[in-house]
Design a protein that fits this description.
- By secondary structure, this protein is an alpha/beta fold.
- It contains eleven helices and eight strands.
- Helix 4 links the parallel strand 2 and strand 3.
- It starts with 16 loop residues before the first helix and ends with a helix.
Length: 288
Amino acid sequence: MNRRLPHWLKKDIINTEKTRLVRKILRNSGLNTVCDNARCPNKGECYANNTATFMILGKNCTRNCGFCSVNSLPPEPVNPEEPQLIAQAVQELGLDYAVITSVTRDDLKDGGAGHFADTIRAIKHLNPDMKIEVLTPDFQGDKNAVDIVLEAEPDVFNHNMETVKRLYSKVRPRANYERSLEFLRYIKTQNPEIFTKSGFMAGLGETFEEIQELLIDLNNAGCDIVTAGQYIQPSKANLEVKNYLTPQEFQSIEDKAKKIGIKYPIVSPLVRSSYKAREIFADSNQVF
């Protein structure tokens, strides 16, 4: 059943000199962003602030998560020049904080971990003071792949849970709830100083009690930063929205997260995992 988008989820289109510059740089470089490929509602705002989340390893995903609008098609060849192209784009944009994510590449032996590491190093070679956040897939639970990324020294390591345990088979049919929790837990055990981060969506039919269980599990896994926002159906081919939570309900989730012990919960209807990532990192440094 289609549901009308409530007013608190509607955003004006931002078209300024800055947003046009970011689009031009990204277009000329031939790079992919999750902003465009996942149809993020905050794209204009982020572009206006000279930021973007780069999506490496092509634009075709080897999985078919029900919430995601990224293409589920045969994967593309890995571009060995991509890390350097991203580093150059980051420099041209004048960024001091970069977010790197990817499609899932189950076809690659290391799941693309080496390409993540190469991208981190290429960026830091041009700007050693650059802060870098990675948002990776689960690498099918391969801890050696996690180690490869950690060795490149990202400042924030993000892996999204996306939804509550009961809905995994429907929302993330080729992922595993416990495997993703262990993924986050392992990062923290290998490097207790690194900021770990995860995010999930609300509005897919979960209960508040199930959200509370997820928050407890994330806290027990040592997750420092948790983002939560409203699921918005990106296309008719994706899962339907079961309900739209009010801003007050999101505030209740944030309050519960703090009570459970999450150090830095970022919760509101339009929050996405990479939304205002630079500001969140700066603020979290003051909190921890």
